Amino acid sequence: MTQSDPVLCAPSRPHAFSPRATEIIAAGRRLLEAEGADALTMRRLGAELGIQAPSIYKHLPGKYAVELALVDEALAEIGLALHQAVRHPGPAGSVASVLAAYREYALAHPNLYRLATGSRLPRGSTTPSLEDWSGEPFFLATGDPQVAQAMFSFAHGMVILELDQRFPDGSDLQRTWDAGADAFVSACRSRSATSAVAPAPGPEAEVH
Amino acid sequence: MTQSDPVLCAPSRPHAFSPRATEIIAAGRRLLEAEGADALTMRRLGAELGIQAPSIYKHLPGKYAVELALVDEALAEIGLALHQAVRHPGPAGSVASVLAAYREYALAHPNLYRLATGSRLPRGSTTPSLEDWSGEPFFLATGDPQVAQAMFSFAHGMVILELDQRFPDGSDLQRTWDAGADAFVSACRSRSATSAVAPAPGPEAEVH
Fold first, then answer.
1. Closest chain A residue to B161 measured between Cα atoms?
2. Residues of the domain holding B162
3. Can you give the CATH number for the domain in which A142 is found?
4. Which residue of B123, B168, B186 is in closest CB contact with A190?
5. Rounded CA gap, A183 and B181, in Å?
6. How many domains does chain B have?
7. How many Cα neighbours within 13 Å face the side chain of B162?
8. Nearest CB partner across the interface for A183, out of B150, B155, B175
């Protein structure tokens, strides 16, 4: 990956909202990030904005629309962080760089991360092009769709176990992230060695 | 791994319960597996057993005790499945065998799996020796504690994303599991090649 590499898909942007709807979504984000998804109710939103809850419906069709808008925000922010990570990987290489950016985002926004990746919203409710773009850096770092999906699963598993405090006390999680990065770098090398005829685009190139 | 390899830690067993408490826990498992964790209430347990909910407290201190007993059951069952997988890996090798057994268990018992691995129960509430034993096959298959923890995180991430239906439609998840297995096999090889002085016990030996 070099800085001049094009981003393969143009980033999709969340829908445009009216100024008032944007305020409501921002209030929803404050509630969600501070207190978790259960705090995100129309009543709490109304209190936060100093208006009656039913007035919110003039601007957005309900709590579900607020949640979807926040998931789009999260996907856009994760995508931006990961695309930057894969374009400017540093000496550790693009696999490690993407994993570090993913971890940093999720740990900084645990409740937003849970909303965007958990089972609360039905499959297919997010903006597909945005979800694809957000996950694309896993492919750019590995050059293989299956390795990319496996690496994403590792990142999600690590993050959600870390957020849920499911690792034993005293676990050196940085070393575990490093071991995962090593595994997916090894997988890229192994796959490119066995498919030298048609190399996949953009595989991890750095020697770690 | 050969069939005669000793299991490094003896399996811990869940606490002994009275016959009535055992019935209550079994009813709790039926409710949990059929309807999810929210269905596991003292009222529903009473209805399931044909007794008044308060009578349950004569045998168990409450819903929390039922949940803990079910998590112990899940850890024991997962541990058994994984220890069998690592001792009888078949031609694909012990990493792939452990991952396949983990996936099979979780997909067969989604609600029990979620209860045992999610954030519902506080960290440290499960039986530590049982949790250690249950996870030990990841170490036996990789020979490295960090690679083992990374491989477990991958397995959990894959399973929970699969249960939550978060993968895009048309994803070939078996190939993604295979790619993850390849990555952790490669990581084992890479680590054992760089630590030839003191090889870790029980690393993945099969050529895939």
1. A153
2. 67-194
3. 1.10.357.10
4. B186
5. 10
6. 1
7. 26
8. B150
